[in-house]
Amino acid sequence: MKDRTLSRRAFLQATAALGLGVAGSSFLAACAPSSGSSGSGSSGPSSEVIEIRVQNPGIPHLTKTNEWAIERFNEENTDIQAISEVTPYNEIVKKTEVGFASGTLQDCVYGHNKWYKFNAYRGIYAPVDELIDSDPPDDFQDFFAQGVEGLRWEGTLYCLPDIIKPGPANLLFYNKTILNEKGIDEPDDTWTMLDLESAARAATDPDNGVFGFDCPWDSDLHRLACFTRAFGDPTLADKRGWPISEDGTQFRLLEPLVADTAQWFVNMLQDRVMPRGGDDVEGGNFQAGILAFEISAIGFPATYREAIGDRFEWGYMVQPPGPDGRRGTCMEGNQWMLNSKSEHIDAAWQVLKRLTDKDSNIYGATVGKIPARRSAYLDEALNAEIPTYAQFVPIMDEFLEPFPMVSNLRYNEVFQVYQQEIAFIVNGEKSWDEYASTVYEKVQAVVDEARPKQALS
């Protein structure tokens, strides 16, 4: 594949078009090799250093991990230099679209399951199957196989995985101090979700600002799936708990198993076992010590350790299965893509491989980023710090279910409407009986829309 080098002058002109001006030029000057330098130490057009712009997501543990990988890539290479351009995470969707249309998008682009297939459909990302065949990443088979397959769009892969996890809510955290004070046993691997509910109710003391349980079931449909899928038969053939139907055309909030699980949460909200929005504490309810149990992301032990300090004793374990032993999973994570308009695809591919290699996976896990590689999940040193990583490997090998993508690819719109409408029930403004059908109708209306136009103007 031919590598078309973008000159430094052309890139500075692009930054000026973005309004970066002198500041943008100064940033480049600080990051780039000195004028006239090259891999061989000679000067001239043939030895010009290729600069690869990286859309580094502005979440502390992600930014830190990627800059660690970029620094090492730049030390290891003289003919290619990667430049980190930190982009606020919640602006990536819009800035990717605008940057692609204007020709100013970075060479290496970041994404999430929520919008990855949508942008692959619109041609923003370059396919990578041929690159994997001709210039493969180190041990490509090390990425979780079901995770990689779940990232194919119409049979083609457009990314290297940065994070692959069994779901955004799969680790049970528990406050040992609260449990000891209440005389409640700590959870173990014999527990089910119903045992968790029983213990959470026993720990609840809202008059003193203590709640039994919380989890992000109301924030989006891939988090909801981690719970609704647990309340079914212990086989992948049982798809009754999928909040979006297998063909992506139906929102299933009112169907029995999904509805029963949602009402399970609503009952705990009404009984004050779960906190409502007005009960939230700055910095996080579990970190503040007002929750007995919380189900959240598997990468949180590293960040919770710093946030909690020595204020109370706490522990964590793999989320309990449903009452019949079913695991609630939802393949979810982040990805690195190549801008399909990049002038130097081959060089950007080298950076992508470094950002997703085993060393970067393991380093990231130590600062709170979840890996995408099986070997990182099994790494001895990592498991000495966070032992649940290895425990998730058989679950991900055998029971990893797909992301609940809608057939029209409008997932971002779908989850925003769900989050907005379910909030009326969560906050107690509407009851489940009077408003669940409205939540269903408003979300289904988005699911029923046609796909957006494919081409970007």
Please give a structural write-up.
This protein is α+β, with helices and mostly antiparallel strands and 457 residues long. It has helices at residues 8-17, 21-31, 60-76, 92-102, 113-121, 129-134, 145-150, 176-182, 193-203, 221-228, 256-270, 285-288, 300-308, 345-355, 358-366, 374-377, 380-385, 388-398, 411-426, 432-447, and strands at residues 50-57, 80-87, 108-112, 152-153, 156-157, 160-165, 171-175, 211-214, 291-296, 314-318, 332-338. Helix 1 packs antiparallel against helix 2, helix 3 (60-76) packs antiparallel against helix 15 and helix 19 runs antiparallel to helix 20 (432-447). The radius of gyration is 23 Å and the shape is globular. The two termini are 27 Å apart. 43% of the residues are buried.
Give the tags:
three-stranded antiparallel β-sheet; 457 residues; four-stranded mixed β-sheet; disordered N terminus; alpha+beta; globular; 20 helices; single chain
